[in-house]
């Protein structure tokens, strides 16, 4: 079996000694494998110098500015649309509210019309009566106190989370706090130029 193009001769005796032959008898060189006319290469994107890092930082800054620009433009358009939507809906609500009130007044004044069935169906929808249960809480503090006393905690919604800023103060004051630690040391920080971002957000 020969590999004339890459090995120059019989498999196992390549002219380029930088790599052994692969399973198909083709030589592998420079970390790339030649298969059926294609070459796969590993592109090293690591930054080697501070000058290269400066260039990458400039690219980050430019792209962040573009993001800020298109975001500001989109948010401005959304705000305009929402403002107009509120005005349009308000006009409809002005017309709808008295219509709803007239219907409710009629239904409540004529419960006998809505027994069997409880709802009257029309091509435009249905109206009538329906069974409903609504909890009216007159004193929330008394209710919560009673639920705690009876150990009915599943009836109480509680959202708890540590305030990181305050816990950090405790640890910095050498106080022993279980379940957490302070991690100190240098960490990578990348901050695009704020003036560039601020300028990009300005809408023409």
Please explain how this structure is put together.
The protein is mainly alpha-helical and about 200 residues long. Among the domains are: about 1-35, no CATH class; about 50-120. Helices cover about 45% and strands about 10% of the residues. The protein has four helices and six strands; from the N terminus they run ββββαββααα. It has a two-stranded antiparallel sheet with strand order 1-2. Strands 3-4 form a two-stranded antiparallel sheet. Strands 5-6 form a two-stranded antiparallel sheet. A hairpin with a 2-residue loop joins β5 (about 120) and β6. α1 (about 50-110) crosses α4 (about 195-200). The longest helix is centred in the middle third of the chain and has 60 residues, at about 50-110. It starts with a strand and ends with a helix.
Give a nutshell description of this structure.
The chain is mainly alpha-helical. Helices cover 43% and strands 8% of the residues. A hairpin with a 2-residue loop joins strand 3 (34-35) and strand 4 (38-39).
Q: How large a portion of the residues is in β-strands, by DSSP E?
A: 5-15%
Average pLDDT, rounded to a whole number, is 82
Gap between N and C termini: 69 Å
Find the count of extended strands (DSSP E, 2+ residues).
6
Topology order in helix (H) and strand (E) letters:
EEEEHEEHHH
The strands making up the biggest β-sheet line up spatially as 1-2
What gyration radius follows from the Cα positions, in whole Å? 36 Å
């Amino acid at each position: 079996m020969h590999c004339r193009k890459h090995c120059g001769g019989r498999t196992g005796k390549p002219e380029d000694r930088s790599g052994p032959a692969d399973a198909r008898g083709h030589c592998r060189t420079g970390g790339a494998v030649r298969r059926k006319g294609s070459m796969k290469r590993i592109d090293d994107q690591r930054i080697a110098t501070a000058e290269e890092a400066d260039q990458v930082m400039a690219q980050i800054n430019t792209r962040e500015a573009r993001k800020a620009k298109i975001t500001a433009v989109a948010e401005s358009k959304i705000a305009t649309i929402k403002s107009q939507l509120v005005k349009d809906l308000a006009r409809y609500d002005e017309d709808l509210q008295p219509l709803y009130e007239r219907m409710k007044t009629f239904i409540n004044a004529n419960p006998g019309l809505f027994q069997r069935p409880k709802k009257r169906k029309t091509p435009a929808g249905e109206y009538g009566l329906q069974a409903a249960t609504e909890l009216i809480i007159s004193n929330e503090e008394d209710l919560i106190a009673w639920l705690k006393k009876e150990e009915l905690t599943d009836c109480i919604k509680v959202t708890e989370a540590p305030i990181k800023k305050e816990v950090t103060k405790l640890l910095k004051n050498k106080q022993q706090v279980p379940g957490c630690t302070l991690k100190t040391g240098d960490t990578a920080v990348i901050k695009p130029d704020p003036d560039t971002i601020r300028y990009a957000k300005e809408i023409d």
